[in-house]
Write a structure and sequence with these properties.
Elements lengths: L33 H10 L5 E5 L6 E5 H17 L7 E5 L4 H12 L3 E4 L6 H11 L1 E7 L3 H9 L6 E5 L12 E2 H6 L15 E6 L9 E5 H11 L12 E4 L11 H8 L2 E4 L6 H11 L3 E3 L2 H11 L14 E4 L6 H11 L2 E8 L3 E6 L10 H7 L2 E3 L4 E6 L3 E2 L8 E6 L11 H7 L6 E9 L4 E7 L4 E3 L2 E3 L1 H9 L4 E11 L3 E10 L5 H9 L10 E4 L13 H10 L5
Parallel strand pairs: 1-11, 3-4, 3-5, 4-8, 5-6, 6-7, 10-11, 10-12, 12-13, 13-14, 25-26
Antiparallel strand pairs: 1-2, 8-9, 14-15, 15-16, 16-21, 17-18, 17-19, 19-20, 20-21, 22-23, 24-25
Helix pairs in contact: 1-2, 2-3, 4-5, 7-8, 9-10
Family: Belongs to the ATP-dependent AMP-binding enzyme family.
Keywords: Ligase
InterPro entries: AMP-bd_C, AMP-bd_C_sf, AMP-binding_CS, AMP-dep_synth/lig_dom, ANL_N_sf, ATP-dep_AMP-bd_enzyme
């Protein structure tokens, strides 16, 4: 039995390993690397389709998984010829395209580290991540060349830029290499090296609202275990009959692992490119018969509005059966609408770059009594296998798993980061001495493993010494049939310390009194915001979450404090 980690001892992966067993097991020591899933593309699921949308009309290029795997081998050979070695970082600056997926397989499989660059960050932040990662090569989507050029000027250590697609007229990338020309010069029979499952496979940067983005370095073992776990029947519930529409950016939390899950299960994979607006999205679902998808709630709310408009008359969602949404709270009313009108099961998932998406996923319980079915679906979900979750308080310690005791959510498991890349100070702050990752989310956990996220620790509102969870208040507001979105932040108050202020996006006129009367039937009277602002849109971070830092700045500009 392992001795407990002494209090005050810094956790590390080395200190967490089991002691040598008395009797070794007689099992093959096959390393869990992405090469195992890559082989599956060739040997088992080679005939499945990868559909890469090229135009807003829905026109697409389709290639088999087998062709994708062979092209990944050509890419690996081309990168090796350019001098890329195991452990080197290779960046991608791209939408969800076939080439991006080929880079997933080729870069990781050759032992280099795939840095999926978040193109939604500010130019300064993008340049910081490229320099911090020490990217030697960047694979660039031609449609994004103009956006990347200012980044390239600030990153002199990038040795090669490889462009796929056609550059816009008048745009030049100095010294750029052609992706297709490089692949054409190589054989697909690349000699894949033997890799250690603990070696780094991918590098993603968090989009924190303060300070520089933080790097999360995932191992091959974590990537493979996550893919196998998500392929399970109780988590993503993807089957070999599905056509998976990957709306989550491949540069965000590894696209929720969907390329790997699709390869493991043998589901077709549809990549929308840059066409995420309601009109092309509706066309893509209709024409390519998507059955399963994942994306932030805004995409699905906007699609619902489009379907109800004259422009969306030809959209058919009859093929769609299941959607996992996350990044911010999924409105219950939206879930009801998709279920009632289209028989689409929309559920909520929870995760983050540090723990991979799907650490918890809610499920539909059609036999649950009354509103319990919708209550469960509105939760962050049930804890997935291989993850451990606990609720902690800095003064009280670990809290009871009773569904009511709220505190910071902490997580550990084989797909959870043990630290941040080249950031020991942040690691010390975010990883506890006994090896749990502090997520910064405030929540509760019940005895059946259902997690409810109540707020971000920094977003909870403390009024008169009592906490008001902004997420709960936002959910209550969005239950109003004419409220499309709502974000609540605290504003300073001389008497109560803080009071809620709500920003709302509405369909048509809606006065404050009607909102207050509506809330009075759903939340405690003292939770009701003192003030409201109707806005055209709520600002979001690069990962689709409400940008509450921006909203607080707006309050300052309005003279109401922050």
């Amino acid at each position: 039995m392992n001795a407990p980690t002494p209090v005050g001892t810094r956790y590390s992966p080395a200190s967490a390993r089991l002691p040598a067993p008395v009797l070794p097991g007689l099992m093959m020591n096959v390393q869990l690397t992405t090469q195992l899933l890559h082989r599956r593309l060739l040997e088992v699921n080679g005939d499945r389709e990868l559909v890469s949308v090229q135009e807003a009309s829905g026109a697409a290029r389709t290639q088999s998984f087998r062709v994708t795997a062979l092209r990944a081998g050509q890419l690996a050979a081309a990168l090796a010829r350019l001098g890329v070695r195991e452990g080197d970082r290779v960046g991608t600056f791209s939408w969800n395209t076939a080439e991006h997926v080929e880079a997933y397989w080729g870069v990781m499989g050759m032992g280099a580290v795939l840095h999926t660059i978040n193109l939604r960050l500010h130019t300064d932040q993008i340049a910081y991540t490229v320099r911090h990662a020490e990217d030697r090569v960047v694979l660039l989507d031609a449609s994004l060349a103009e956006q990347f050029l200012p980044v390239l000027e600030r990153c002199p250590d990038v040795e090669h830029v490889i462009v796929f697609g056609t550059l816009p007229e008048g745009v030049e990338v100095p010294g750029a290499l052609s992706y297709e020309a490089l692949l054409a010069a190589e054989s697909p029979d690349f000699a894949w090296p033997d890799l250690d499952e603990h070696a780094a496979a991918s590098l993603c940067y968090t989009s924190g609202t303060t300070g520089d983005p933080k790097g999360v370095l995932s191992s091959h073992r974590a990537v493979v275990l996550h893919a196998i776990l998500m392929a399970g029947t109780e988590v993503y519930r993807i089957t070999a009959e599905d056509r998976v529409l990957s709306l989550v950016p491949l540069f965000h939390a590894m696209g929720w692992g969907l390329p790997f899950v699709a390869s493991a299960v043998g589901a077709d994979l549809i990549l929308p490119g840059r066409f995420l607006q309601p009109e092309p999205l509706g066309r893509i679902i209709t024409e390519h018969r998507a059955t399963w998808s994942a994306g932030v709630p805004t995409l699905w709310m906007d699609l619902l509005s489009h379907v109800d408009s004259p422009a969306g008359a030809d959209v058919s969602l009859t093929s769609l059966r299941r959607v996992i949404s996350g990044g911010t709270q999924v409105p219950t009313e939206m879930m009801r609408e998709y279920q009632r009108r289209f028989d689409v099961e929309v559920v909520q998932g929870w995760g983050m770059t540090e723990i991979f998406p799907g650490a918890t996923v809610s499920q539909d319980l059609p036999d649950a009594p009354g509103e319990e079915r919708w209550h469960r679906r509105s939760l962050a979900g049930r804890v997935s296998p291989l993850y451990q979750v606990r609720i902690s308080d800095p003064e009280l310690g670990v809290l009871p798993q009773d569904g009511g005791s709220a505190g910071e959510v902490e997580v550990r498991g084989p797909a959870v980061a043990s630290g941040y890349y080249k950031a020991p100070e942040v690691t010390s702050e975010k990883v506890t001495v006994d090896g749990w990752l502090r997520t910064g989310d405030v929540g509760t956990l019940d005895q059946q493993g259902w997690l409810q996220i109540r707020d971000r620790a920094k977003d909870a509102i403390k009024s008169g010494g009592e906490w008001i969870p902004s997420v709960d208040l936002e959910n209550a507001l969005m239950a109003h049939p004419r409220v499309r979105e709502a974000a609540v932040v605290g504003r300073p108050d001389a008497r109560w310390s803080e009071r809620p202020h709500a920003f709302v996006v509405t369909d048509g006129p809606l006065d404050e009194e009607e909102l207050r009367d509506f809330l009075a039937e759903r939340v405690a009277k003292w939770w009701i915001p003192d003030s409201f602002d109707r806005v055209d849109a709520i600002p979001r971070t690069s990962t689709g979450k409400f940008d509450k830092l921006d909203l607080r700045k707006r309050l300052i500009g309005m003279g109401t404090g922050a």
